[in-house]
UniProtKB/TrEMBL annotation:
Domain of life: Bacteria
UniProt protein name: Uncharacterized protein
Amino acid sequence: MVDVFLVVANGAAGKSATIRALTGARVRGAINVEIGTPRIVRPVWVEIRSLQEVSINEQIAVDNILNSGCGVAIIAMRYGQFRNCNPAQSYINAFETAGMTIRGVCEIGPIGPIATNPPMGAGFHQVVPVQGANTSANQRAAVLRSAWSIT
């Protein structure tokens, strides 16, 4: 079972910067992050750039996460379709179909479609709306560290 945390926004909203500030990751892949209560270092699969921006479709995203062996994934996504890739909701559906649990969603900017229609899987935790225009990546990451128990 994989717990998935999503950072979702439109283009140039600060998704990548937020994930870098949150995890310390500089490139996509598996890294060790302190997560949970009590804090335990766990391997986490990180996709810093949005899946649509790097042309990773739903099946490849699912395969990358499952093949990583990580029990947690932090993923950046765009709301809408981009570069022939589907909107965020299509990826969320694919993750849930693959048995992953969406534990948290951060929407950067105005309240978006995920907050108004959140995933309702058994383990879903919360949507964390963060106003992007007036906050730095470090401020957004601080909100998420608290909400998602990630350091």
